[in-house]
């Protein structure tokens, strides 16, 4: 109860209420005492009741697709953690399919729940645009990865730079060129990784092999590996995600191709299992959880009509995690 928190913190019930409602006229040391008392008493305010009293919802909505994939799932984790840290709950809805009517129905259902704002986590421009245009006018919204125009804030992984880092790593190891197993053609993130791969090879004056198209799954990576195993002279492959890289490793093993002695392989995502594959996988690590956190920060800036953090990067830049699936020629 608020009274218990007030007694432990040595303040009035009104002061506790002001802290809960983020009132600016509370001294920082007083705020810290109240928050510490809440933690010690495991006090959890009823966010929905607070929203009703203040005529403001404390729920954020999320429309997401492909949430079983590592990247979107980790982004959702980041959204949930960031929202809770700011005193918000999260409602996540997933369309039954990627067609327009399903997305429209999902957006309408979410809007009916009186959320304070919405994060749209879709990999395609068309799906994101459909979802955003289906929301009520004036409802704050932020997109992850794809946005229809500059009017909608978007938080993104710098996919192109991540691909450049992967290819540059392989070229620096002495490989003449790098083959690429891409994600689906209709995915913006997959296409950006293709663009980064191709641009890096062209700028280095290297030949650009044909793209082998996958679908993010280990099975498609396995099929790509069997195809590449039949081509002579391949020494380096950049897979657009770690699951496809896993399939590549299996196919190469079955065909007697050693990694990294014969072929070096780089993935993308740094899934938790990447360091335990045989060999441990060199990969690109994008901070998907940070994308979720930035999406919430950006959305709540719109909800509260505050200025956005000018230091927040427009893109989250990935890093290289070097393990034993790559080696010098």
Short description:
The chain is α/β, with parallel strands linked by helices. Helix content is 44%, strand content 15%. The strands form 2 sheets. The protein has a 6-stranded parallel sheet, with helices on both faces. Strands 7-6-8-9-10-12 form a 6-stranded mixed sheet, with helices on both faces.
Give the end-to-end Cα distance, rounded to a whole number of Å: 67 Å
Structural class: alpha/beta
CATH topological fold name of the largest domain: Rossmann fold
Residues in helices, as a percent range? 40-55%
Please compute the radius of gyration using only Cα atoms: 24 Å
- Return residue spans where pLDDT drops below 50 for at least 5 consecutive residues: 47-55
Strand portion: 15-25%
Oligomer: single chain
In CATH, the homologous superfamily of the largest domain goes by the name Response regulator
Report the total helices: 12
Domain HTH lacI-type: 1-54
Keywords: DNA-binding, Transcription, Transcription regulation
InterPro entries: HTH_LacI, LacI/GalR-like_sensor, Lambda_DNA-bd_dom_sf, Peripla_BP_I
Protein name: LacI family transcriptional regulator
